[in-house]
TrEMBL record:
Its cofactor is Mg(2+). Gene3D superfamilies: Farnesyl Diphosphate Synthase (1.10.600.10). It comes from the Bacteria. Keywords: Isoprene biosynthesis, Magnesium, Metal-binding, Transferase. InterPro entries: Isoprenoid_synthase_dom_sf, Polyprenyl_synt, Polyprenyl_synt_CS, Prenyl_diphosphate_synthase. The keyword Iron does not apply. This is Polyprenyl synthetase family protein. The lineage of its organism: Bacteria, Pseudomonadati, Pseudomonadota, Betaproteobacteria, Burkholderiales. Belongs to the FPP/GGPP synthase family. Signal peptide: none annotated. The keyword Magnesium applies. Pfam families: polyprenyl_synt.
């Protein structure tokens, strides 16, 4: 697969994900709640997590319809987390995906409810009345819940909030990022893989790939926070430094952080090679794009 073929694959998947989100996120939820939900999740973002779901499903020859539901669910969880993270009680940010954050646009109470509703909707999407085996529904729900809860994203955010202004060692910083960002990215890969048949060895290597890519994503985020402008990022640049938050750049320095991101990419590539699957080109390209991105 060359770059043009990969870009075509991405465009096709993004269109399908957007269509599914349009159909599944209700506009008619009461009292304007649907408008806030759709504002939070539609027409924005990289959709990296849905792309990972679909690429992993392709790698194992899985059920694409089930994977699309998983892709929508994981994006809903990601979007809800951003809505809550941006609120004044957490990161207090006014810009997300190049537009005002949900609490700025709709108020804090509506933003909180929109996040809550998107989290619930994610699990509703994974449990359709028909078309998906019950065992697969249960496995996808388990993977998503564990990555989003205390052992994953929520736990990582708790560590993040408790670490402002405090020195952290590299192991603690890595643990925070693996939970806050990496867990949901790794789960995206595994949810896609769950839609097909895998051996324990393949599952282990795809998990290793997802973990390396997830940490690489956060390392690059830390780099971009100090090297790019808000207009490029679509969110407020420099906030980590302004808020005295520990990051890989503050701990390792800019050049060593870049080198670390490249080592993590190599680890992701090595995991795919060890999995010995025939259709991992999209997963390989996604790892490259994560490290080479500028936003």
């Amino acid at each position: 697969m060359n770059a043009g073929e990969f870009d075509n694959w991405v465009a096709t998947q993004l269109k399908a994900v957007e269509t599914a989100l349009e159909a599944l996120v209700p506009a008619d939820a009461p009292a304007g709640l649907g408008l806030a939900m759709r504002y939070a999740v539609l027409d924005g973002g990289k959709r990296l997590r849905p792309l990972l779901v679909m690429a992993a499903c392709e790698a194992v020859g899985g059920d694409e319809a089930a994977a699309m539901r998983a892709a929508v669910a994981v994006e809903l969880i990601h979007a809800y987390s951003l809505v809550h993270d941006d609120m004044p009680c957490m990161d207090d940010d006014a810009l997300r995906r190049g537009k005002p954050t949900v609490h700025v646009k709709f108020g804090e109470a509506q933003a909180m409810l929109a996040g809550d509703a998107m989290q619930a909707l994610a699990f509703d999407v994974l449990t359709p009345d028909e078309g998906m085996p019950a065992a697969l529904q249960a496995r996808l729900v388990s993977l998503l819940a564990r990555s989003a809860g205390h052992a994953g994203m929520a736990g990582g955010q708790a560590i993040d909030l408790a670490s402002v202004g405090r020195p952290l060692d590299e192991a603690t910083l890595r643990d925070m990022h693996r939970r806050k960002t990496g867990a949901l990215l790794e789960a995206s890969v595994l949810m896609g893989a769950a839609c097909g048949a895998t051996t324990p060895e393949v599952w282990q290597q795809l998990s290793r790939y997802g973990a390396a890519l997830g940490l690489a994503f956060q390392v690059v985020d830390d780099i971009l926070d100090v090297t790019e402008a808000s207009e490029t990022l679509g969110k407020t640049a420099g906030k980590d430094q302004d808020n005295n938050k520990p990051t890989y750049v503050s701990m390792l320095g800019l050049e060593e952080s870049r080198a670390y991101a490249c080592r993590l990419r190599s680890e992701a590539h090595a995991a795919l090679a060890a999995a010995q699957l025939s259709r991992t080109a999209c997963l390989t390209w996604l790892a490259d794009r994560v490290v080479d991105r500028n936003s």
